[in-house]
Write a structure and sequence with these properties.
Elements (H helix, E strand, L loop, with lengths): L2 E2 L5 H8 L4 E2 L1 H5 L6 E6 L5 H12 L6 E7 L10 H7 E3 H4 L4 E6 L15 H14 E7 L1 H11 L4 E15 L14 E10 L2 H5 L4 E7 L3 E7 L4 E4 L9 H11 L25 H17 L10
Parallel strand pairs: 1-2, 3-4, 3-6, 4-5, 6-7, 7-12
Antiparallel strand pairs: 8-9, 8-10, 10-11, 11-12
Length: about 300
Amino acid sequence: MPIKIPRELPAFQVLSNENIFIMNNERANTQDIRPLKIAILNLMPKKIVTENQLLRYLSNTPLQVEITLIQTKSYISHNTPSEHLDKFYSYFDEIKKEKFDGLIITGAPVEQMKFEDVTYWKELTEIMEWSKTNVFSTVHICWASQAGLYYHYNVPKYELDKKMFGVFAHWANDEKAELTRGLDDVFYAPHSRHTEVKREDVEKVSELEILSESKEAGVFIVATKDRRKIFITGHMEYDRNTLKDEYIRDKEKGSEVDIPKNYFKNDDVNEIPSYTWRATANIVFGNWLNYCVYQNTPYDLETL
C-alpha cells in the first residue's frame, strides 16, 4: 500500500523521484474503500488450473478483491467438470449489466486459427466491446492479447517458424511506468505460443505503449497510455510445472516441440524446473491491481 505523507514534506519529492508511490493527505482524505470487483473470462481448457494460477497472484495484495468467473456460452469446455462450471461460473448474459473494476481475459489454445474462425469469436468481441464501457482496466493474456490488439487496433498476428516456448529474459522500457514499477533490470517470464505481434505494428498505434519486451520473445507488455487496456503476450501466471506439462502433452500427441528454453537444468526433463518468474508475476499483478485499478477506478462503478 502507498505511504501517506504531506506533499510539502521534502521526502515526498525525494521518494517520488525514486519511483516510490506516495499519497498526499488531500488524496487520501477523499478515498473511500470497498472491495475491487474483478471478472475473469477463462478461455483456458483446464479452467481450475488457470483459476488457481490467477487467484494466487490476485490474492497477494492487501486489497480486498471480489472475483466473478465467466465462461463462454458459444463453446463449452470439455476439460472441466460441468458441476464446477455450473456452480462457480456465470455466462456473459448474466453479468453484462454489471460494472467491474478489472477484467482478465485468459489465453486459449486457438492461436493458429484465424480469429474469425474461433467458435466463440463473436461472443468474445461482444465482451471486449462491453469492457470499454463496463470495465475500468482489462488485462489480455497471451492469445487474448493478440485478439485484443487485433479487435481494438487492427494489429495483426504472425505465424512463427517454431513455437516460442520457454522462459525468456525481458526488460522494462520505462522503469517508472506504473505496471512495471519495481521489476529488476532483467526479469523472466514464460511464453508458450505459435504466433506473435510485431513491434512495428504496435508502434503505428499512437494510443499504445510498449512497456516491456525481450530480445528472444519480442513484444511482452503493451498498454494504452491510460492503462485501461493491457496486453501481455506471455504467461506470468504459469506455475512451476506448467511448461513441463505442456511439453509432455505435446510430445504425447506426436507434435514436434523443442524442450522449453531456459527451464530445465541442462535441458534435462527429469530435473525440477526452475521457477524464475514468480517475483515478476507478483509485481506486475500487484501493480495492476494497485496503480491501474485501485488508485484510479471510481468508487461508484455506475459512473464508469
